[in-house]
């Protein structure tokens, strides 16, 4: 066993020192009726065999698909320097910085992560990470409930349905009224929002861009929620944020989102990275870990976990959240990504993604049978009306090595013919042509078959 | 000259200069203005986000210089109790980084992902075997998320029976996440004391157990590292009043092949895959917090739920009417699911039992080496960890806090301190099975040496650490002059 250093001799010596005859004797404290009497039926493999087992399994996945799927996670390019430094055991195999004197690496990175997130979103404070965009939305609602002492949460139907499902789960144990305001033409319905918002509302949750890729009139919505004294929660795409007006400028109180586009592999949807930023006045209500800058006894600058009295290991049932283990390594990846790409690079990723999305949009909407599902401005993701169900489009194009998007009908009833297409800087001209060509053939064959 | 280094006190922003770049990207085909014109001006940023502008070599140096300031398991001993800081086999990372595994979009159709579903299924089969629970979900991404799922299942279970139960019993030795999770679901905590042997007594449970209590949460072995010997009797008491038994699986590293919670009265548990099955802790995460439940409770597990159809094909079932709902954007921390699966495969059933045996042996050995000098509040055979107290040392004016700081001068991380709350000046020590006798001897010598220093020159300890990248940090000032982001 390469991971257990004790030899038989070691074990003998250790047992003698303890004063027992066998390891079994150490387990004698466990009542016999609780003991497992049979060996665990699990096979073992050598390192070589493990690798070939995974190679076999990875062959049963498609690695040849040009990915136009989004929905919160995107296929962005990851510069080689990122995994090179992220894979250092100093980052991989450390744990929560409970002893800051030997965790300055992790702590300074968290501090820089918080700073980058604040600069990107125009907010004043950020935490060390949440599990994913979905749990960050849910925790944002919980924060708003705590601080306003109100019990109604309003969310627009244009916020990711995956996030709304998680939000519902998080709130299901509490006495909270969760109101989903139906969308109108792919956007948040401001008239209905106004009718729904009242003095009981802890917060309004909006996404910018929304799940269909469209830009929302956040300014008007912000006014509506502020008028009733509630908090504005915005869920944002960090790449689009490089070109979009900051939540800070919309007077958002809490800003959350999925940080996966910032240098984290898709990895079948996990691990992801929830980010969480707020106005300074809310910092004591924020869930999870926060790094702060201070000085050591010699006056040297250093970092610690701060405001820990919010956290479960100190406050137990009075904590702001039950979160303990977070997504620190993913936050480290995002920090490295935002450092390498920097001010100009992140914007260029956004522009390239936009350009590819625009090209795909123009190509597809010029085809017979396809049109924009909704009117409005988009950044790098858009919704299409398809001549056959989106599910069928996906099945057909996957056979041509293209994952053309995601099927809105999975979450929105009546939108079975709505395909949501996303682009990143990785999509090539050839891949876009292939997407357009594939959709064209599908349209032609659907027309033929309906004749 | 005073020794110094280039990076001293510098943030990445201090190395940033306009005009420097750390990337290459394809050229835009159209002008920036033209691309941006698709977005009306009112939606656009007026100024670029002030992220750093540095070259790749500058970035590399920055992060490498930061990295070497960290203690980590590949550098030295990390006996942080209840965190199971064991060695992370590298083959697991190689498996998780394979192209077919790392690059798949989670909303790809089933036809593109069957290998990935097989990995998930493989792990659930192993966890069933290890825990004795029939129903498994890999969706919770951390221990606390597993607790959250478990308590939601309790809530759904009682709701379906038309009962409203509002309380959860928790022993005073519980992890902080337990009461925090209880509160986050609107339950209230009924705290019961551990008895003189450090375990929950059936009488204490019987006293508070009634039809308003949804269930009891406990870790086994508990946070003192002591096996909860009465769990079967306790389960009978809880069940007799209709309640459910939850096991916090943080300490599963002591149990593999020894004790299966699903066999002896527990109704559900969470696993900390990152602890027991050794996925790298990453400076605080990501973890993975799978949950196991009895057959009766399986229908409440989160959706999407991995199932086999009648033809034996795996699929994700989104239509589960009794489910507690969705907990994660997708299917959990898949990268860690891959690593845990690889870890279990590298050990097999026999190897996992050896893991638990050696973890328990190491803990008992270290405990014996320390117990004459540091107070041992519960002197029984421990499981994978144990708790000592710095009470004697405190009488000399040196706190557990100081001892922890002094340890850092010797290339080892300190134990978890001031936890569990029921032991004053607590040090909770979990050596794990991947440490050698020589390492344990070194740690014990160091601990005894520190005790000696406390007698002879206590200020050496109370002013420690002396050799770390920074010395004691002012945590009070960090709160008072709150600086959590550098914004120009």
Coarse shape of chain A: globular
Task: Tally the beta strands of chain A.
Answer: 17
Q: Classify the helix fraction of chain A into a percent range.
A: 25-40%
Task: Indicate the CATH topology of the largest domain in chain A.
Answer: Aspartate Aminotransferase, domain 2
What is the H/E string of chain B?
Answer: HHHHHEHEHEHEHEEHEEEHEHHEEHHH
Describe this structure in words.
The complex is a heterodimer of chains A (451) and B (488). With 451 residues, chain A is α/β, with parallel strands linked by helices. Chain A has helices spanning 8-18, 23-26, 47-59, 81-86, 89-92, 104-121, 133-148, 161-171, 190-196, 218-227, 312-315, 328-365, 390-398, 429-450, and strands at 66-67, 125-126, 152-156, 177-181, 183-184, 187-188, 201-208, 231-236, 254-258, 274-278, 291-295, 301-305, 371-372, 381-385, 402-403, 406-407, 418-422. In chain A, the strands form five sheets. Chain A has a seven-stranded mixed β-sheet, with helices on both faces. A four-stranded antiparallel β-sheet of chain A has the order 13-14-17-16, with helices on one face. Chain A has a two-stranded parallel ribbon with strand order 1-15. In chain A, strand 5 (183-184) and strand 6 (187-188) form a beta hairpin. In chain A, helix 6 runs parallel beside helix 12, helix 7 (133-148) crosses helix 8 and helix 12 (328-365) crosses helix 14. Chain A is globular. With 488 residues, chain B is an alpha/beta fold. Chain B folds into three domains: 12-67, no CATH class; 91-344, 3-Layer(aba) Sandwich (Aspartate Aminotransferase, domain 2); 355-462, Alpha-Beta Complex (Aspartate Aminotransferase, domain 1), CATH 3.90.1150. The longest helix of chain B is centred in the C-terminal third of the chain and has 37 residues, at 334-370. Chain B starts with 31 loop residues before the first helix and ends in an 8-residue tail after the last helix. The relative contact order of chain B is 0.13. At the A-B interface, helix 1, helix 2, helix 3, helix 4 and helix 5 of A face helix 1, helix 2, helix 3, helix 4 and helix 5 of B.
